[in-house]
Amino acid sequence: MTETMATNGTTTGSRGSRVLGAATLLGLATLLLFAFGLTEADIRLHPTTGEEIGQFDAVRLLYLHVPLAVFTYVAFVLCAFASAGYLIRRTPWFDTMAHAAAEVGTVFCGLVLVTGSIWGRPVWNTWWEWGDVRLMTTLVLFLMFTGYLALRRATVDPRAAARRGAVVALVAVLDLPLVNRSVEWWENRTLHQKSTLGELKIQDLTLFTLMLGFLVFGLVLAWLLLHRFRVGWLEREDAEHGIAADIAERRAAIDEGDVDAAVGEGT
Q1: CA 126 distance to own-chain centroid
Q2: Of 54, 78, 98, 231, which is least packed with CB atoms within 10 Å of its CB?
Q3: Where are the domains of the chain?
Q4: Which residues pair with 56 in a beta bridge?
Q5: Which residues does 129 contact at the CB level (< 8 Å), separation at least 6?
Q6: How far is residue 107's CA from residue 28's CA, in Å, rounded to a whole number?
Q7: 3-state DSSP call for residue 173?
Q8: Tens digits of per-residue pLDDT, 207-251?
Q9: 207, 66 in Cβ contact below 8 A?
């Protein structure tokens, strides 16, 4: 696939994607500057003892972890819509988009688990809590979409892979409401706090940096989806071209009377 693209001079880049990539890199650099340099650590005084309390520098992961979680939802919902579109229309565009969104969403979901564990270690004094309902539902979500990707790779027939993958995606996305609402529905079974953004508990530079995080990771998602979709589309065209060329070659061999060659190529 890579050799074919190189030979034909085909790439997944374009002027628009390069502009988007440059904006994404600039945004990431700016976000890191604000998150780890300009915003303040979470340090408060205990009302009774006067002791310093809070999440200290660990709170800076807020600007990465929360946007990653939100755009994980976006990617998986997009995968579900594209999967439903494929089951209805049976067109390659929907299947390619579903596959691309699932891959990018799975990467984001893995990063959510990693950044959450790093954040949880200083705040909760543990890397992982098996009884935490949000952690477990997020892990289940990650494993289901990892299974989606594995199923697609293991299925030889592209159409069968698309159909089975679409069904798995529509089932897996049902876990999203459980992840999102787990803190409210099972508040006694999670270490996670309720949304500070929803309750307007953050403001000023902290709020600005979090909004910047949403913008930047939205750009990251768009850039990754764009290139992964184009790679998937080129792979599909390359496979279809290879099959068509193979069929034409065998037909030519049969027309020339070289039946043994035609049969031998297929064994």
Answers
A1: 26
A2: 54
A3: 16-229
A4: 42
A5: 120, 135, 191
A6: 17
A7: coil
A8: 999 999 999 999 999 999 999 999 999 998 887 765 555 555 655
A9: no
